[in-house]
Amino acid sequence: MTENVRIFDTTLRDGEQSPGIALDVGEKLEIAEQLARLGVDIIEAGFPIASQGDFEAVEAIAKTVQGATVAGLSRTGFKDVDRAWEAVQHAARPRLHVFIATSPIHMKKKLRMTEDQVKAEAAAGVARARSYCDDVEFSPEDGSRSDSDFMCEVCQLAVDNGATTINIPDTVGYGVPEEFASLIAYVLDRVRGDYVVSTHCHDDLGLAVANSLAGVKAGARQVECAINGLGERAGNAALEEIVMAIKTRPDYFEHLETRVKTDELARTSRIVARLTGYPVQHNKAVVGRNAFAHEAGIHQHGVLEDRETYEIIDAATVGQEAAQIVLGKHSGRHAFSDSLAKMGLHVHGAALDAAFTRFKELSDRKVQITEADLEAIVAEELGTGFVQRFDIVSLDLHGGTSSTPTATVVLTGQEGERRGTGTGNGMIDAAIAAIAEATGVEGRLTDFAVQAVTGGGDALGDVVIQVEVDGARISGRGVATDVVEASARAYLHAVNKIVRLREHPEPREHEIGP
Amino acid sequence: MTENVRIFDTTLRDGEQSPGIALDVGEKLEIAEQLARLGVDIIEAGFPIASQGDFEAVEAIAKTVQGATVAGLSRTGFKDVDRAWEAVQHAARPRLHVFIATSPIHMKKKLRMTEDQVKAEAAAGVARARSYCDDVEFSPEDGSRSDSDFMCEVCQLAVDNGATTINIPDTVGYGVPEEFASLIAYVLDRVRGDYVVSTHCHDDLGLAVANSLAGVKAGARQVECAINGLGERAGNAALEEIVMAIKTRPDYFEHLETRVKTDELARTSRIVARLTGYPVQHNKAVVGRNAFAHEAGIHQHGVLEDRETYEIIDAATVGQEAAQIVLGKHSGRHAFSDSLAKMGLHVHGAALDAAFTRFKELSDRKVQITEADLEAIVAEELGTGFVQRFDIVSLDLHGGTSSTPTATVVLTGQEGERRGTGTGNGMIDAAIAAIAEATGVEGRLTDFAVQAVTGGGDALGDVVIQVEVDGARISGRGVATDVVEASARAYLHAVNKIVRLREHPEPREHEIGP
């Protein structure tokens, strides 16, 4: 008899709140589709009242994504709850996730409420949620710094008013495993009724995964976590580590399992890293480039006669093999769209056209196109497929250490071609100046990172930038065999988002949540 | 009465074994100096018998670095022990660290020894080490997968033959906190004598920090860890997380403290990331860019009236404030060298000259030079200061989407100027081809990553590449305001290392260790 530990993924809510991540609806949908394919039980799709964009994304995911429960976050106020329900109601299995803080510091400094007010809010918010939906989760925010008895009283009120999951957050990442396990056991002991206990741990001291697993050992049957450990500050518990720990140590986590298809972990990690612009460090457990000894190759062949000598997980189990070659120069549109479908990438209409054009350009320069290359191209086109304003026709540069780097760019826009020239400290700087002149959008570059998609001289450069403009930080992404061109594409990607935001400004609630 | 938990840093041994990291003596010395400044108790400087380069680095660190114990790793064979002692003997406080595997799979597949042979080896190796040195550490490799009774018998032999520290490795990252704590308690209970118990945990399941801390709670008084969690595969326990957990939770880790100066953590992390070419992910605990809520700035000012609402560590405690502006265009050589000294960077001779020249070039292009900029320049020059062969005189490029990218480079070498031209898929590719022509060293680019050192259009691009040549992977690093120039510098940096390696080939032992 095995028992399921539910995997509640909050990449699109807590993860998406990380500074500089600004996913549009298309990107969020792509991540949600992949999460469903990965087999998570619950997708927390966003915080619908926070902004119009959040609302639309949650609604689109609820309408489209099959196979997982779709949750929306909400404070206790009726306006919040109503808006969250409006967004998630379309899902086959909707969930409302209501929260309010129960720690002294949060009640005093953030909520400015008494204990009695917090109790009344929790009861009313949960009751309202339950009036819409049978699946209601309640979280006492900053639970680990709350008075345990008071927190349990609030949780009891939540259960009495219809909550079916009680989630205990270590909002500030303060817990240690032994203590956090005791807290979970205490809740199970004190709060009466029919509900599932859940963990939500932050990684400020590097203990999020250990705390979550200690919670599971103490009786929690849901873990809130995020791909690549994304989330506020040091992030949430990493989904891939939670899942692989339970799978790798069945002797310790007796009778427990998750429904996650582990061979989708590596791809999910890559897609999330690319779309958010948050790369994973080489020595990250499970999904990092070096997580498996055999990757090292050269230095270790002598030792690795038996892989188990130094490896407890097989790379294939998490889908982390070398990217396969899927297409070549002569592959047509059908083969291209077929390959995407096999990889589970859903691209349609303008985004598919644009991706195919990019693929043909790329296949002129690169002999073998791998899965990772395709993912990178599609990731770039996804973000702009819905709102493409400007596209690059040509980009030419000259200069170097003996003459000032100068760029000339020709763009297509909705109102015909535009040209721009620019100079700068370097080639990329010059290309950005040229684009700024052509589009009239000038931003300050606040971050810049390039990763090679695969090895070799003809590898794709995958550029992620952050641009500050109008007081907001916008990320942009571009891929090309030339890093300068990829950077120009990334800047243009950000410019296209800015143009859209200027036309549809999105005020946002300032709220962090569990 | 407080008790000290010794911090044993293995960045230069286990960390340096990560694929693609190839630090030279100058770079290792720089890291060791910073580790001493950080206040670690023991620096594991390397594995002297592995290669001539390892030997020289350990010897140089033992001779130069003050304030920390300097340890060298050794298998049990006398040749290993003798060589390790030859390297560390110059230290004010030397330590020999002897290891042999005790797990069934390692004994059978790697050592091909019986239990009795392993016991005899451990006893003899430790006795030999103790004949040289009062401070001897012993590790039963793959301890967590060993039979506990057998492992304790081997450890008892080690103590009886003079070991003063017994280090229990979770070599494959298989442990969970509760179990690992029991193992530490079992060792303390079973092995008699006067010794300190230590932990050495790997992060394959994301539990290295939790396992180490559980070990401390069970009585371990030394933790083996590495900056940024570097190490084989998913790495070792992250030093910064161990230290901050003990410091942030004095109520839990009663009476325990480390001697680490936490306000040096962020700088140490930056230096190690730069010299190894292993960047830290944004959401990494303690030292990641987003580890502190206030970094996010824009979205959260409403909530953060009281910082403690969402933060348990103050950024200043770990030295993670914005990099300060230290120098400008008119700063002279004296001010430059003064600033480096204040930052604790020791650069002399040719490396100082080269760094100053780079600084002047940079100050022509960039108005404000920050601490982070200086660190980046010095990091680049360090690696080449000892063995500079080729340097860039000029680099000019033209091309783009309408004409093939073409580069022309002029280099200085020991035998006068050399020129090269090259074309490629992109600007960087062309620049590399030109350098390959000029130097006659052609490598395959296996990895490429760029990080911006600071924000803004005039930010330095910090490029780290890996080049495969003659069957070995060599890393190179370059910084410049132009990413193409930085990439060319990085490639040239790798070329200079390759030239040196061809003149002084370094055969290396294939051994992983605890």
Explain the overall architecture:
2 copies of one chain form a homodimer. Chain A is globular. In chain A, α1 (25-38) runs parallel beside α2 (52-64), α3 (78-88) packs parallel to α5 and α10 crosses α14. The two termini of chain A are 33 Å apart. Chain A contains 16 helices and 18 strands. In chain A, β13 and β14 (406-413) form a beta hairpin. The first copy, chain A, has 514 residues and is an alpha/beta fold. The interface between A and B is large, with 125 and 125 residues. β13 (391-400) of chain A pairs antiparallel with β13 of chain B.
Tell me the number of helical segments of chain A per DSSP (H or I, 4 or more residues long). Answer: 16
Which geometry of chain A do the CA atoms define?
Answer: globular
> What characterizes the major β-sheet of chain A?
8 strands, parallel, barrel
Report the portion of residues of chain A in β strands.
15-25%
Helical residue percent of chain A?
25-40%
Total number of beta strands of chain A: 18
Most extensive interface, chain pair and sizes: A-B, 125 and 125 residues
Taking Cα atoms only, what radius of gyration of chain A do you get, to the nearest Å? 24 Å
What's the N-to-C terminus distance of chain A? Answer: 33 Å
Low-confidence stretches of chain A: 294-304
In terms of structural class, how would the helical and strand content of chain A be classed? Answer: alpha/beta
